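How a chain folds remains the central question behind the approach discussed here. This step matters because it turns folding into a mapping between discrete strings. The sequence in question and its structure tokens are set out directly beneath this paragraph.
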Amino acid sequence: MRCSFTPVPRHVYNVGFPEAGRYEEIMNSDAKIYGGTAVDNIGGVPASGLARHGFACSLRVTAHPMGAVILRWSA
């Protein structure tokens, strides 16, 4: 789970994750069904080998404003 507490979206934000592979978005507090603007990571995102934030891999995600996203490793 990752949270963003800035008032603007970050469309290319690198955040550390523990494993390489693909991560699918399973919850997004900015989704239309929750009254949000639908800034999301449709289809999931692949992890790269670039270390970030103390983790061996990182994801380039869209961090929507003032919300949270939950990603699940899928392989």
Summary: The two ends are 17 Å apart (CA to CA). The CA atoms of residues 22 and 74 lie 6 Å apart. DSSP finds no helices and six strands in the chain. The mean pLDDT is 86.
